[in-house]
Write a structure and sequence with these properties.
Largest interface: A-B, 35 and 35 residues
Order of helices and strands of chain A: EHEHEHEEHEEEHEHHHHEEHEEEEH
Shape of chain A: globular
Largest sheet of chain A: 5 strands, mixed, barrel
Strand order of the largest sheet of chain A: 6-9-7-8-10
Oligomer: homodimer
CATH architecture of the largest domain in chain A: Alpha-Beta Complex
Radius of gyration of chain A: 21 Å
Chain lengths: 357, 357
C-alpha cells in the first residue's frame, strides 16, 4: 500500500436501535458487539492498520473524545478531531478531507464508519487497495457489497459500465435509497446492484471539488477551517447538516464521476439486534446466542439473543428468536422480528427518562 | 363466630415456579404478589381475623421465623411456631392440632395456607363459618372451590351425598390428584367435582384421631411434643414427611368422615406466573399487567406480565403473553404458557448457583 493512504474514521451515530446497549453517552462504536474482545471502533482501526499504518484521522463528537482517545492508544491524539456538535457525515468527512488536503497533497483517503463489522478483513483490504488505486486516477470510489439477501435496511448502488483501465470496477449509475422488499428482491435478482456501505475512497481534493460543484460555500468553509483550525468552533455550527451520500455521492454519480469496487467480504452495519444476533457465534447446543458472559445465561427451549451486561443471571424459558438485553439500569425484551421498533422505546424515554437514552 | 375458632396458618413451600421473585430465603408468602400493598401471609391473616380474633397459630420454617414475626405484629409471637426443618404439611398442621388440643379443648381449628389468594373474603368467611359449624359435629371439613376452568394444576374433591343436618354440605366421596386436561374437563362437566384448596376445618382431636387410625405413632409423637415442647427439636426429625391429604384426608374420606363445603369466593394458589398474571388488574390501555412500579415499564405491542422489582426500566416490544421478571440479581423471561417450566431453571441453578435459588 502506498504510504499516502489515510484511513478516515467518522465515529458518530446514536445507534438507538441497539438500546439499552448503545446510549447517547456511549454509542455503539464504543462497545464490543460481537464478543471479539475489542470494540467496534477498535476492530475498525485493527482492520485498516495494515493499509494505513499510523495514518488515521478519527472524527468524533466532543462528548466522545476522551473515550475514543482511551480506546485507540495507537492513534496520534492530534489526529482525533472533535466535532463541536453533530452535523452529519458530509461535515465530518469533508473536514477530514480538508485537513488531509493541506497535510499531505499526495494522499488518498478512505472513509469507513467506526461501527460496522467485517468478517473477512483480508478481502476487505484487497477491495480497499483496489479502490485506492482507482481513486488515484481521480475517481470518487465506493465499495459496493454483494447482497446476501434482499435487505430493506440498506441503500443500494447500481453498477454501470466497467472502467476502461480497471477490470472488475464499474462506474456507478445511481445511488438508491433503502428499497421496499419487492424492489430489493428485483435488485438482487438483477445482479446489477450492490449494498451501499457508506465507504468512500478518494483524493481529498477530488472529494472537496465534487462537493464544491453543488455547494461551493460548504467546500470553502471546510477548507477555511483546515487553514485556520481556531475557527472550527465558530464555523462548524454554520455548516449544512447533510449526509455525504446526498451532498457528493449522488450528484457525482449523475456526473459519471463515481466508481464502485464490488466487495464480498462479509459486511454488516449492526443496525439492530437482529443483525447483531447473526454476527455472534451460535450456541452449539441450540440455545440463544450470547453476547457477554455465558455463565450468566440459563435457557430452556429458547433461541435468539441474550446480552447479559448487568451482572445478573438471565433466564429464558420457551421463547424463539427472543432478544433479551440486561444492563445496569434497563432491561429490553423483544424479538428479532421487532428489533427495528426498539427506536420507539428510546423515543418514549427521551421524553420521560432522558438519562436512560 | 364462636370464640373457640382458631386459624392455623402453615407458612411453608418454596414457590420455585415463581422464581426469581420467590426464593428459598424469601418464599412467596412473604411477598406482595397482587399489588395489594400487603404480603400474601398478611392478607391471609387479614382475611381470617374477623373469624379468629387474635386466635392465630402460625407454623413456619425456623429460617422464616423472624420475617413472619415482623410481618405479623398482630399475632402473639408465642403462637408463631418454628419448625426445625421442613417436614411437609401433616407434621406442621398436626403439631398445630396437638398444641390446640391441649390449650383449648373446645376449639375448632381451620388450616389455611399462607400463600393463597381469595378475591371475595366475605364469601370465604361465610364458607369457613359453615365449615366450622359442621366440624363441631365431628367431621373433618374441607372447602371445595367451584372450578372456573378445567384446571390441571389442582387436585379435585368429588362430592357425595348431602349431609343430613347441613343443607348444601356434602360428604366427600374421594380426593383425586391433579388430573389430565381430558379428565379435568369431564370433572367440570359433571358438576360433581370441586378444587381441593387444601383448607381443612376440624376439632383438633378429630384431626389427630383420624391420623392415629392409619399412623398411631405419628399422632402420639405430635401429642408428645405438645405435652413437652422442649422435645420438639429432638422428635421433629423423626416425623414422617407426608402431606395432610395423603395422611388424613384420603383415608378419612374413604371412611366417610370428611365433608365438603362448596365455595365460590375466587381462589388461587398463585402457583406460577400465569396464575399471578390473572390476579393483577389489567392495564386499561392493553399493555402487560404490571406487578410493581408502573413508571418503570415501557411497552410497545406487548401483553402478559412485567414485574419490575430490580429498580431498572423494563422495556418490552412486540411480544404477547410474555412474562418478564426483573430482580436485583436475576432476570426471567418466559411466557404464560411456559410458566410451569420455570422450575427447570431453579433446578439448574440449585447446582450451579444455589445462592440465587
Amino acid at each position: 500500500m502506498s504510504e499516502s493512504f489515510w484511513a478516515v474514521v467518522p465515529a458518530g451515530g446514536a445507534g438507538t436501535r441497539l438500546w439499552p446497549l448503545s446510549r447517547r453517552a456511549s454509542p455503539k462504536f464504543l462497545h464490543d458487539l460481537t464478543g471479539a474482545g475489542r470494540t467496534l471502533i477498535q476492530t475498525t482501526v485493527d482492520r485498516l492498520a495494515p493499509l494505513a499504518g499510523d495514518r488515521f484521522l478519527v472524527v468524533t463528537g466532543a462528548t466522545h473524545l476522551a473515550a475514543v482517545t482511551a480506546q485507540l492508544p495507537e492513534v496520534d491524539p492530534a489526529w482525533i478531531v472533535a466535532e463541536p456538535s453533530p452535523r452529519d457525515s458530509m461535515a465530518a468527512i469533508g473536514l477530514a478531507a480538508a485537513l488531509l488536503e493541506r497535510h499531505d497533497p499526495e494522499a488518498v483517503m478512505g472513509s469507513f464508519a467506526a461501527d460496522h463489522v467485517v468478517t473477512d478483513p483480508d478481502g476487505f483490504r484487497d477491495c480497499v487497495r483496489l479502490a485506492a488505486a482507482v481513486a488515484r486516477d481521480g475517481w470518487l470510489v465506493t465499495i459496493g457489497i454483494e447482497p446476501t439477501q434482499p435487505a430493506t435496511g440498506f441503500g443500494y448502488v447500481e453498477l454501470g459500465a466497467e472502467l476502461p483501465h480497471h477490470p472488475g470496477v464499474a462506474a456507478v449509475r445511481e445511488f438508491v435509497e433503502k428499497p421496499s422488499a419487492e424492489v430489493a428482491t428485483s435488485y438482487v435478482a438483477s445482479g446489477r446492484y450492490r449494498w451501499n456501505a457508506g465507504m468512500f475512497v478518494a483524493r481529498p481534493s477530488v472529494l472537496l471539488d465534487l462537493l464544491a460543484t453543488p455547494d461551493p460555500g460548504f467546500a470553502a468553509a471546510l477548507r477555511g477551517i483546515a487553514a485556520a483550525p481556531d475557527t472550527l468552533a465558530e464555523v462548524w455550527p454554520t455548516l449544512p447538516r447533510i449526509a455525504i451520500d446526498h451532498a457528493v455521492a449522488e450528484p457525482a454519480a449523475a456526473a459519471g464521476r463515481v466508481a464502485v469496487v464490488p466487495g464480498t467480504f462479509g459486511w454488516d452495519d449492526v443496525g439492530d439486534f437482529a443483525s447483531l444476533t447473526s454476527l455472534i457465534i451460535p450456541d452449539p447446543a441450540g440455545g440463544p446466542a450470547i453476547l457477554g458472559d455465558p455463565t450468566l445465561v440459563r435457557s430452556v427451549d429458547a433461541t435468539g439473543l441474550v446480552v447479559p451486561q448487568g451482572g445478573r443471571v438471565v433466564a429464558v424459558v420457551g421463547l424463539d428468536d427472543v432478544v433479551v438485553v440486561d444492563t445496569g439500569d434497563a432491561v429490553l425484551v423483544t424479538t428479532r422480528a421487532r428489533a427495528q421498533d426498539v427506536r420507539a422505546i428510546v423515543a418514549d424515554l427521551a421524553d420521560s427518562a432522558p438519562e436512560l437514552t
